[in-house]
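Thread title: Can someone regenerate the structure for this chain?

I was given the following input by a collaborator and told the matching structure tokens would be attached. They weren't. Posting the sequence so someone can regenerate them.
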Amino acid sequence: MNYKPILIVPGDPDSIFFEIFFKSFKKKQIRSPIILISSLNLVKKNINKYYTNIKLNEIKVSEINKQKFKKKIIYIININYKLNESPKKYLNKCFKAAFKILKSGFTNKFLNGPITKTNFLNKKFLGITEFISHEFNVKKKAMLIYNKKLSVCPITTHLPISMVAKNINKKIIKEKVVLINSFYKEQFKIKPRIGILGLNPHCESIKKVNEDNVILKPVIKSLKKLNYKISGPYSADTCFIKQNRSKFDVIIGMYHDQVLTPLKTLFEYDAINITLGLPFVRISPDHGPNKKMLGKNASNPLSLIRAIEFLDKN
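Best answer:
Regenerated them for you:
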């Protein structure tokens, strides 16, 4: 069986990506060819640090369809990077090459390493999810932090907490539920059990308008009528207790930390970030560049291993 290549943009040039990548390569037998869109010099520099017995093969974007890919070789599309160059400029060149390949239909597997969002996005997009979705003109999207036991999805992603309530509505909740349901049916042949968390503590509010009553309850009721396995709203402070979370495949929260904090506490590095709604599978490890760990050779590669495993099975 021929497996489509996994296209990888390693992310920030000064992140832990190469450390965890080469650790992953050692620990995991990967069936899919690997194509790194990166500075060749950066790759060679890090091979000397973390891995010595590996073959590299430089290729060009224009010749990619003519290439016969083999396992146990890392293919490199070289993007020049100078030490005094802006990482933002370098990353834009990496993503530009990746997007060109993805739009050609050559592969449907894309992974990006950790990126410092404030520097790269410059407040134009809330996160990499939104940046990639904009490039492919995708309006309906969802950030799914996936673990095989329990996954979570925030309705709002990297918004300041003061802006959360005004950005929650029935339409966006329904869009996320539909995307999640389709993803689980396509990938795992199941209709997922979805729990919805309330916005307010205990789903109660001292305000005249309680979003849990006027937004969440009606949309949950309407989705139930459409035969989605959905229930709520639930109080966020008890939903992740073992006997409660076991009732769900996915818990949807109203804001980022409401669901990512408990999930990372439960599973630590055993989770991956999947963007739903794109015309290809986009995954990233569920952690940041972690620059304070550079050079220590002590970073945990599990999230990247899980990301590669997910892409490699197709």
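The first helix runs from residue 17 to 27.
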